[in-house]
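My current task is to audit a protein record that another person submitted. My question to you is simply how this chain folds and whether the tokens agree. This is what I was given:
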Amino acid sequence: MDCSEKKRRLTAELSYNKSCGQPGQEIRMIGQLATSKAGHDKERLYVIVAQKGDDVYLCDGDLRLPEKPKKKRMKHIQPINDFVDEKLCSRLLNGEKVYGEEIKYALKQYLKKTCI
């Protein structure tokens, strides 16, 4: 299953969970972009590199590298309906090594795409 298939499934799960109110179902968010809603890093853009229960691990490629991601509660982030490219997404999902420069490049591409 490639990353685009995972994106479609995630979108379907999100709409299903919102409409049906399914409590306790974990939604996979790895590879998705998010901003911080609270803390000293408020409104900073991140990529979700890991997820464990109600916590997500965020990386921006600059201050927070993939080797030492920022741990945040789900309620303290605002997910963005966009993902990193398929190659990077599949590497994150498979647990392969990801470099900070790749994360930084993905965030730069998103900002370039949204500011046009």
Notes: Strands lie at 32-36, 45-52, 55-59, 70-73, 77-83. The chain has one domain: 3-115. Residues 3-115 form a domain with the SH3 type barrels. fold (CATH 2.30.30.30). Helices lie at 3-20, 86-94, 100-115.
